[in-house]
Each structure stands twice: as C-alpha cells, then as structure tokens.
Amino acid sequence: MNNSKASKVTKSFVMSFAAILVGLIVSVIFVAISSGNGLIASASLLFGSIWRGSFGEKSQLIETFVFATPLIFTGVAHAIAFKTGLFNIGVEGQFIIGMLVASLVGIIPGIPSFIHILLIIATGALAGAIWAAIPGYLKAKVGTNEVVNTIMMNFIAMHLSNYFVYQKFKVEGTVATPIIQENAQLTRFLGDQYRLNTGIFIAIALVILVFILLWKTTTGYELRAVGTSPHAAEYGGININKNIVLAMAISGAVAGIGGAIHVAGVQHQAMQLFGFPGFGMDGIAVALVAKSHPIGVIFSAILFGALNLSSGTLMLFGIPKTISYLIQGVVILFIAAEYMFKWISEKKKKGATINE
C-alpha cells in the first residue's frame, strides 16, 4: 500500500516536472522566432534571464520569496477546494476581503503587537471564510454552480474594497487607507530594505496544518472522500452538504489569511483596485502544478513567484515579458490535459465494465 502511494506521488511529480519542461521548451521556440537566434542561443538567453531576474542576486532571491508567499496561501486555498471536488474561483475575492479587513483592523491604535497581529490574522480568516461559505452554502442547499457564484463574489469583493478605501477611509491626496500601526506590521527579519517578512513562516506553518488536516484527521478524510466520489461518500454516511460548506469555508479562511498577511507584511495599507491583484488566479496554477498537495504548493509557488518576478528582467534582454505568462499557460494546459486523459480513461473503463 505504501509502495502504491509512493508510486502515485512519484508519477504526479514526474508529470508536473514534464509539464514545466514542455512549457520552457515551447517558450524557447517563441523566443527563437521573435529574436531570430538559434534554439541553443535562445534557450541560454531565456533561462539566463529568468535566473538573473529571480535568483541571480541576493535581492532578487529575497524578492522571489516575497512574490511566492501570497501564492502559497492562495495555492493551498485552491488545493483544499480541489481535494473536495470544488472549484473555488473566488479565492481572488477572499484574498481581497482579507486585505481589506486587515487594513481596517490594523489602523486601530493601542493594541499590543502580538495581539494585534493575531487579531489581523483571525479577522482575515473569518472574513475569507464567510465570503467563501456563501457560495458554498448556495451550492449545498440550492445546487447553484460554485464557479459562477465565486466569480461574481470576486467582483463584489473588489468593489466593496474600493468603496471602503475610496469613500470611507481614504487618506487625503491618496487612493489608499492609512498605513497600519507599527504594532500590526510583521517583522522584516532581513532588514527594512527587504520586503520579506515573517509571513513566509506563517505560510509554511499553515501548509503543515492543512496537510495534517487533510491526511491525519477524520474531517480531512471526509473532505477527500467527497472529492473522490460523492456518491460513495454519502453511502458511507458522510454528510455531503456539510463538507461542501466546510471545504469552501476553510479554503476561504486560508485565502483571507493570505490577504491579511500581505497587508501586514508587505503592503501595510489597502489601495484602490483597478483590477484583481491576481494572486488568487495564479493560485489556481500553483495548486494544479502541485497536484493539490499542500507541501508541493510551496515549491510550485516559488516557481511561479520566480516567473512573475523575472518578467520585468526579460524585457531588459529583448524578450517580451509575456513569455513568463506563456510558460505558465503551457504548464497549465499540459496539467489540464493529464486530467482530461485520466477522465477519458476512467469513462472507457466504466463503459467496458458495463458491456461485460
């Protein structure tokens, strides 16, 4: 049994690695076409640019982890939903709500630092959980599609945030809330010149907690059972509706904490949004490459954080910054193709069984 599990994990890792490799190869071809150089020269230029832009210097390496930290939260949030057979496309909105609540709680004066930070995390989690539980409840009780509802909740979250930022708490001459109290700010342990903060340790701790929840508890077993086979889970006495709402709430709580940590550690205020920040959407790709495994999300988030950060450096070497998005898109395409082939294979097996 252990060998079977190890084999599945190894196979998942190999497939994810292959998807990344194919994405890089396709990108090299596009760089060669746009630059007129050969494949070897284009590969050297592309990989060298990505490396220099994300890992080449100390400051770039540190900033890669800054970019990766929110993606760990959103990747884990999506992974929880995926494991339960749900598509929580509203992680983006839940992240925004977490940012908004953290910026409002963070400006309250006179709270001791440790309590203030805990309060920010707790309220971010609560706000994100409520925001996600609404479409979860609608799916469980009414049967509405969670994808449509969560997408709509994203837009509501963005405009609600803008209302508070622009109408209620805007600092004169800006389009942002006041800077949160120093007591509410996470420690930048490498110095104030770097944005990396203790939020990355909170992200890793959360990954471990989610791993324990999903694989070491009865609740996690029920969530995964619902995602694997809802009918079998229900036949076994598992409450499907309860676990749908619970999975969405936990997913939203993780996303809300991510938004709160981003404000407390990096941004220190909520700003008017002219579009989605993108952390929730990128989290989909992070979770897919990680095969919805919390530990794998850490490494996947670092990869996508590096690609996002290096996109600016690519332009310095004459490579369009969209190449980094091309890599991400191809990776997602091949990961999705694997799921599609698996689905077709299962359908064929079921058909063969019925015919027999």
UniProtKB/TrEMBL annotation:
Recorded GO CC terms: plasma membrane
Domain of life: Bacteria
Pfam family, one: BPD_transp_2
Membrane topology per record: Multi-pass membrane protein
Localization annotation: Cell membrane
GO MF annotation terms: transmembrane transporter activity
InterPro entries the record matches: ABC_transp_permease
Main location as per UniProt: membrane
Keyword terms: Cell membrane, Membrane, Transmembrane, Transmembrane helix
Transmembrane regions listed in the UniProt entry: 12-41, 61-82, 89-108, 114-134, 146-166, 196-215, 244-264, 270-290, 297-317, 323-341
PANTHER family linked to this entry: ABC TRANSPORTER, PERMEASE PROTEIN, GUANOSINE ABC TRANSPORTER PERMEASE PROTEIN NUPP
Protein name: Nucleoside ABC transporter membrane protein
